[in-house]
Design brief:
The complex is a heterodimer. By secondary structure, chain A is mainly α. In chain A, about 80% of the residues lie in helices and about 0% in strands. Chain A has 23 helices and no strands. The longest helix of chain A has about 35 residues. By secondary structure, chain B is an all-alpha fold. Chain B has 5 helices and no strands. In chain B, α3 runs parallel beside α5. The radius of gyration of chain B is 19 Å and the shape is elongated. Classes of the chains: A mainly alpha, B mainly alpha. At the A-B interface, α1, α2, α3, α4 and α7 of A face α2, α3 and α4 of B.
Chain lengths: ~425, ~180
């Protein structure tokens, strides 16, 4: 068999194994090693398994993932989301659609200390959903807002998915995080505008909440110091060159832990739960990372990235035509796979194409995260949708998908804006 | 998409009380969880002390080696609980019988892959011992850390074997194995 045919067979086998629910990382590892063994010899292929597995799990750069996960876990457990919602609601709740706007603001704030979309969506399903329903918001809208707000978790730094992109594409994670700030703020602003527009287009659909006194507002604001401090500490530390991304993650985890303890919001079971949650996710993520690196050897030996680059650049579509094609592929893949798996599987193949086309790798990181983030809310996989469904049990999946539709359109518009104006992502990192 | 409590969905019977095996797996997970705490504390203290001109000897090496240990022990628990990141689109759209067949197939593949990995990792442990690889500052041998990490992988093989057995013969035992957690994305 030629190496081209082996590559094709390898990809078919990979997708077949994944469809049969073999863990994504294990499927990548199995296909990668088997394919490499077929072309080079089973001896070197097996040697590669032990070497690569140990090297990956002891790679200090990769420590950024568990440490940021731990920081997010402590932040979630210590109830910072509730304080953020209370503060945002105090200032915005009395507007038309105000509770929805406050939910988005609080999701944005929470995303700044928790790099997880799923955690953000799950948390606000408990915190914001009952409030929105109490004020008569339709179930579709209330769940849709939370699903969309949840996606801010991977957009606004620190973001686990952005960090993994940085590791795979060998890009500066600190710069990637800083690049995500303006697009993240843009996302918050556009979601808020969407809610306002819906509120004005359909009067009575999104009733305003009660106006709260300034004393209460300021009291609510007083509670969010912990979130602000943590965000400023972590991202400020990276931006100011005080520590590396891995150190920032460790400092963030330590900081979230100490703040939680000092405020009496972390009991012993809470600490244990946070550690366990971070451990479980770390294990799942590293399984994919090990598999992806083993699969990467297979890609190298079959020269798949070079051939894909040649094929795509030979289509004569121009850089933006090819970019559109790539992003459409991600949207389709988003129907099948989750964001992290998609990034790890495809970036080694797509990244050389992006470099060849002359696009900025930092900017592309933000674009790709924004694109895969759509997969979290669009059918049929839509991880955030299922997470909300698991909390709001009486909501139908179709109801949540209906509610999130306006936000999908907003996301697509935001993606176009970022492609047209790369400076939105690149200005801040250029100042570092 | 993350695996959930698949056994419940694959037609498992009523939940059983948590047995010795479940408690054993809880302990394994706890070991990994403690290590993640230690790694975070290591980074936090190292960075703080750096600003006072104090360096903890081998903090970097220890961090790396503990990371390896926590991940392999974490993978052991994750593999048993079935909380790896998987593509569920086919599984979610078939009946309970097919769901169970898919789960058994996936677990058998997992068992095969992790067994091969464990076998090949042992070479790495032996190689580190033979090469007398030492930490940078304290000149401590690193092979014991690699050995502990490898033992995590050995536990993974054993736990996946137990999972396979339970999925085939006692699917109800897997119903409460998966914790209420999903990967952070």
């Amino acid at each position: 068999m030629s190496s081209d045919l082996v590559a094709v067979v390898g990809f078919v086998a990979l997708f077949a194994l994944m469809l049969l629910r073999v863990p994504v990382g294990m499927a990548m590892g199995l296909v990668g090693v088997t394919g490499f063994g077929y072309l080079v010899g089973m001896g070197p292929a097996l040697k590669m398994v032990g070497q690569t597995s140990m090297r990956t799990v002891t790679d200090w750069n990769f420590a950024v993932v568990p440490l940021f996960l731990l920081m997010g876990s402590f932040a979630t457990t210590s109830g910072m989301s509730r304080e953020l919602f209370r503060a945002a609601n105090g200032f915005l709740g009395h507007l038309r659609g105000g509770l929805g706007i406050a939910t988005i603001a609080a999701c944005g704030g929470f995303a700044a200390i928790c790099g997880s979309s799923v955690a953000t969506a799950a948390t606000f399903s408990r915190v914001a959903y009952p409030e929105m329903r109490r004020y008569g918001y339709p179930q579709s809208f209330a769940t849709g807002v939370i699903a969309a707000g949840g996606t801010l978790g991977i957009m606004i730094p620190p973001s686990t998915v952005l960090a993994v992109y940085g590791l795979i594409a060998e890009q500066d994670i600190g710069k990637l995080f800083v690049a995500g700030i303006v697009p993240g703020i843009l996302a918050v602003a556009m979601y808020m505008l969407t809610i306002t527009a819906i509120g004005y287009a359909r009067p009575g659909f999104l009733p305003a909440g009660p106006r709260i006194s300034w004393t209460e507002r300021l009291e609510g604001l007083r509670d969010v110091w912990a979130t602000l401090l943590l965000f400023a500490f972590v991202i400020g530390g990276i931006y100011g060159g005080l520590f590396t991304a891995t150190e920032a993650a460790g400092m963030g985890a330590g900081g979230a832990f100490l703040i939680g303890l000092a405020r009496g919001k972390l009991s012993r079971p809470d600490i244990l739960r946070s550690l366990l949650e971070a451990t479980r996710t770390t294990a799942a993520v590293f399984t994919i990372l090990i598999g992806a690196i083993l699969f990467g050897y297979f890609l190298t030996i079959t020269q798949t990235p070079q051939k894909v680059t040649e094929f795509l650049t030979g289509l004569g579509l121009g850089p933006y035509g090819i970019l559109t094609l790539i992003l459409l592929m991600y949207l389709v893949l988003g129907c099948l796979m989750d964001a992290l798996a998609m990034i790890i599987l495809t970036v080694p193949i797509i990244f050389p194409v992006i470099k060849q086309l002359g696009f900025d790798p930092i900017w592309f990181g933000v674009v790709i995260v924004m694109t895969v983030e759509l997969g979290l809310i669009h059918p049929p996989v839509g991880m955030n949708i299922f997470v909300i469904k698991s909390v709001v049990e009486d909501a139908k999946i179709s109801t949540i998908f209906y509610g999130v539709l306006p936000f999908i359109l907003t996301d697509i518009l935001r993606l176009i804006i970022l492609i047209v104006f790369p400076v939105l992502a690149l200005w801040l990192p250029s100042r570092m | 998409m993350a695996a959930g409590s698949e056994a419940a969905a694959s037609g498992a019977g009523p939940a059983r009380p948590r047995g010795r095996m479940d408690r054993f797996i809880d302990r394994i997970e706890l070991i990994a969880a403690v290590f993640i705490g230690i790694v975070a504390a290591d980074v936090f203290v190292t960075v703080i002390l750096r600003y006072f001109g104090i360096n903890i000897p081998d903090s970097y090496d220890f961090g790396q080696l503990l990371l390896g240990i926590l991940i392999f022990w974490g993978i052991a628990a994750t593999s048993y609980r079935g909380t790896h990141i998987t593509v569920d689109i086919l599984w979610a759209n078939v009946g309970p019988r097919h769901k169970r067949m898919i789960d058994i197939f996936a677990t058998l593949v997992l068992l095969f892959v992790v067994t091969v990995q464990t076998y090949t990792l042992f070479d790495k442990v032996v190689g580190t011992y033979n090469d007398n690889v030492l930490t940078f500052d304290l000149r401590l041998p690193t092979w014991p850390f690699f050995l502990v990490a490898w033992l995590g992988d050995v536990s993974a093989v054993l736990l996946i074997a137990v999972r396979t057995y339970r999925l085939i013969f006692h699917p109800e035992a897997m119903a409460e194995a998966a914790p209420d957690s999903r990967p952070f994305e």
